[in-house]
């Protein structure tokens, strides 16, 4: 048989050995340490704050305030950077708009000059065709208009007769027409050359404007990206500042609660807390001690819940009640809290002011209240119902404010009525 295994017989033997010890210790032993409030649903005690919590909390508040101030500075810097980026983006957008308009103007000018070039080219071509026609007519006669035999014969100018003057006039006219056509051709060519140059200049201007528009658009895009980046930085900084301020408010609130708890009034009349009921062998007196400042020597230990203390008459009757409870359920009453000193009440009130009584007024501080567990901490359980019916017989009760429908339902809280 391996060393890591246990037989059922051995386990059963171990349980039999431990059962008497568990019975002697009782469930109250495990809960003997003081708690900061009533028991949880499992009956375990909650964590108590440390005695130096106020000083630590004050330091925390200071640190959080410093952090908030630093983050406020970061927000201011981020806001200034975002504003600067927005200004640059505005300038870039304006420059882009100007460049875009210049490009549109240049393109319109280029289109207009292209149209003019097309018209000039057409005109020059037409003039050339007309001059060519007259040139062909001249060359077909042999040596030009003035030497054409055909024209001379038709016009009757060979003999130098009376029609010679009419022929000369006609020839002169034809020549002038030819010269006019040549001049028209030359003018058309010059017009086309000028139009070509203007169109070329316009194309270059359009190219320059297009490059400027592209550069301006790139600058605008970069500026927009910078604005978006700075906006994200600002949003993150503002979120961090908001979170930091929230933590400052929470820390300040807790500090105020701690200070209020430390400055709370003590019981107006310590002499009101005196032993009035039946006591057992322990007859310690608590008269004259303020709430929460009763020494353990003036209290009586619970026989059924070691480690817990109550006023003499409360302790005596509680043990009687706990013994009756044990006859019904097999174990004494489980206790998580009994007498609570003032410092513990201060820490509890600072941590859970909605549950704890104001320091100096708690019945725990008089030694006449307990917080219970072992099933009693829940409404409707057999343990809770039994105690509710039987506790008054022994002088204990569940206060109205702690009952279902009360101002602070706490099934675990029970008080002595002596």
Brief digest:
This protein is mainly alpha-helical and 418 residues long.
Question: How does this model look, in words?
Answer:
This protein has 418 residues and is mainly alpha-helical. It folds into two domains: 201 residues, Helix Hairpins, CATH 1.10.287.950; 148 residues, 2-Layer Sandwich (Muramoyl-pentapeptide Carboxypeptidase, domain 2). 61% of the residues lie in helices and 5% in strands. The protein is built from seven helices and six strands; from the N terminus they run H-H-H-H-E-E-H-E-H-E-H-E-E. The strands form two sheets. Strands 3-4-6-5 form a four-stranded antiparallel β-sheet. It has a two-stranded antiparallel sheet with strand order 1-2. Helix 2 runs antiparallel to helix 4 and helix 4 runs antiparallel to helix 6. The chain is rod-shaped and about 160 Å long. The two termini are 62 Å apart. The N terminus is likely disordered.
How does the SSE layout of this entry go?
Layout: H1 8-30, H2 53-141, H3 149-155, H4 164-262, E1 300-301, E2 309-310, H5 312-329, E3 334-337, H6 342-351, E4 369-373, H7 382-390, E5 396-397, E6 413-416
Helix pairs in contact: 2-4, 4-6
Task: Provide key terms for this protein.
418 residues; mainly alpha; Helix Hairpins; Muramoyl-pentapeptide Carboxypeptidase, domain 2; 2 domains; four-stranded antiparallel beta sheet; two-stranded antiparallel ribbon; 7 helices
